[in-house]
Specification:
Elements (H helix, E strand, L loop, with lengths): L4 E4 L3 H12 L5 E4 L3 H10 L6 E2 L3 H6 L6 E4 L5 H13 L5 E4 L5 H12 L4 E8 L1 H7 L2 E4 L3 H14 L2 E2 L2 E2 L9 H31 L3 H11 L7 H11 L9 H4 L9 H12 L4 H13 L2 H7 L14 H34 L5 H7 L10 H11 L10 H24 L4 H13 L6 H12 L12 E3 L7 E3 L5
Parallel strand pairs: 1-2, 1-4, 2-3, 4-5, 5-6
Antiparallel strand pairs: 6-7, 8-9, 10-11
The protein binds 6-phosphogluconic acid.
Length: 479
């Protein structure tokens, strides 16, 4: 036994992670793949890595030092379960199985419980950063037991991205906590991407600028408070020219956005937890809407506004869009962190929100300057109930709100869809409202279903006898 870490599953993410591990001082990496051919290829293409290839799970287990530690990098779902079963057969109590895929956190909770019964540790670890990140330094979000973190922590720290001198990995919490946080990361990623896309669309349709010209605007934005990986790659995508047609690539890509499910999970989970992640939800739905060409084809006949959309002051409009983007982004992150807080309370995880913002500063897809501000906010008040009320964000929202409102109004009048911009603004106005029309909804509920209501002026639960003499009586609280 000479390897301190093993990787199972050698598709792109797995191979890159294995190479990353092998490149760090102190690691010797055992590798296993269902078809041995792939293992051999990786070994021959990367002799510098010193991989220890295994043909069988038994051989793989024998090549690992105890406690054996292996990271699974296979397709989420059935394939993951199959690999876990095989590893459980050859591993021993105290060993550690890590699932580095995008697993749905309830699956991780289930697997952790089942594997724990054998005495083996099971860790669901979210890994973000795509292929490039896996190779050079991802952001890693491991869950699992404290015992597993003792062995796993130093290994993961050795391969994670570094931000402000700190490795982008922390022990998020027990069992499914890591995959839960990775799921919300992806939800925020969806919102961030949709907001950027809406900003691009508004500028393009408002000013008639070309994708290449808009790329320059994004490159400029990337020097300021919006600095982030997603803004940076947006400029790259907009600059790209299609070799075949000579057109901007963005104009020849079919306008249907796909999704592998993590955004939908974030929204489904938020619905169950009762957390309004409206920005993430709109971003997810925007992808769904785009992906129904048959509906879009017939709906094309519906009328838009009569007046043509003209922007008189281009520079002012672009600055409005920038500020609207920033304000909406603050809302999206605030909602995402709210979901993590609620999830932690529901599942009994002790999640340090400040630590999460720190490990997202590097390596992952949503990495951005901005996350330093979130870290500051939680450092100042770890119990912050609404992230966007922290002084720095409140100031940015104050500064941006007039622009934000103008952009949403303009989009509505021009007939340009801006679901993430406008839902974020509605959330902002909803959560800061003195009084909401929820009072009327509660009255309606009481009318048709005797669902009762509370009063603002005295304790207790009440019901108006709507079908009788409409007098009010005290009632049992039925919610
Ligand atoms: C990451 C990405 C990664 C992957 C997602 C994309 O953090 O590295 O989020 O996990 O690219 O699966 O999700 P969709 O395919 O649903 O857009």
């Amino acid at each position: 036994a000479s390897a301190n870490i093993g990787v199972v599953g050698l598709a792109v993410m797995g191979s890159n992670l294995a190479r990353n591990l092998a490149s760090r001082e102190g690691n010797t990496v055992a590798i296993f793949n269902r078809s041995y051919e792939k293992t051999e290829t990786l070994v021959s293409e990367h002799p510098e890595a010193g991989f220890i290839p295994a043909q069988t799970y038994r051989e793989f287990a024998d090549s690992l030092q105890k406690p054996r530690t292996a990271i699974i990098m296979v397709k989420a779902g059935g394939p993951t379960d199959a690999v876990i079963d095989s590893l459980v057969e050859v591993f021993e109590p105290g060993d550690i199985i890590v699932d580095g895929g995008n697993a749905y956190f309830p699956d991780t909770i289930r697997r952790e419980k089942a594997v724990r019964e054998t005495g083996i540790n099971f860790v669901g670890a979210g890994i973000s950063g795509g292929e490039e990140g896996a190779l050079t330094g991802p952001s890693i979000m491991p869950g699992g037991s404290d015992e597993s973190w003792i062995t796993l922590g130093p290994i993961l720290k050795s391969i994670a991205a570094i931000a402000e001198g700190e490795p982008c990995v922390t022990h998020v919490g027990h069992d499914g906590a890591g995959h839960f946080v990775k799921m919300v990361h992806n939800g925020i990623e969806y919102a961030d991407m949709q907001l950027i896309a809406e900003a691009y669309d508004l500028i393009r349709r408002g000013t008639g600028k070309s994708p290449a010209e808009i790329a320059e605007i994004f490159a400029e934005w990337n020097k300021g408070e919006l600095e982030s990986y997603l803004i940076e790659i947006t400029a790259e995508v907009l600059r790209q020219v299609d070799a075949e047609t000579g057109k901007p690539l963005v104009d020849v890509i079919l306008d249907q956005a796909g999704a592998k499910g993590t955004g939908a999970w974030t929204v489904q989970t938020a619905l169950s937890l009762g957390v309004p992640v409206s920005g993430i939800a709109e971003a997810t739905f925007a992808r769904s809407l785009s992906s129904h060409p048959e509906q879009r084809e017939v709906a094309r006949a519906l009328p838009g506004p009569d007046e043509e959309f003209v922007v008189t002051d281009e520079a002012a409009f672009i600055e409005d869009v920038r500020l609207a983007l920033y304000a909406s982004k603050i809302v999206a992150y605030s909602q995402g962190f709210d979901e993590i807080r609620a999830g932690a309370a529901e599942y009994g995880w002790n999640i340090d929100l400040g630590a999460i913002s720190k490990i997202w500063r590097g390596g992952c897809i949503i990495r951005a300057q901005f996350l330093n501000r979130i870290a500051d906010a939680y450092a100042e008040n770890p119990e912050l109930p609404v992230l966007m009320t922290a002084p720095y964000f409140a100031e940015a929202l104050t500064r941006g709100q007039a622009s934000w409102r103008r952009v949403v109004v303009t989009a509505a009048q021009a007939g340009i869809p801006a679901p993430a911009f406008s839902s974020s603004l509605s959330y902002y106005d909803g959560i800061r409202a003195d009084r909401l029309p929820a009072a009327l909804v509660q009255g309606q509920r009481d009318f048709f279903g005797a669902h009762t209501y509370k009063r603002i002026d005295k304790p207790g639960t009440f019901h108006t006898q709507w079908s009788g003499d409409r007098t009010e009586i005290e009632a049992e609280d039925t919610h």
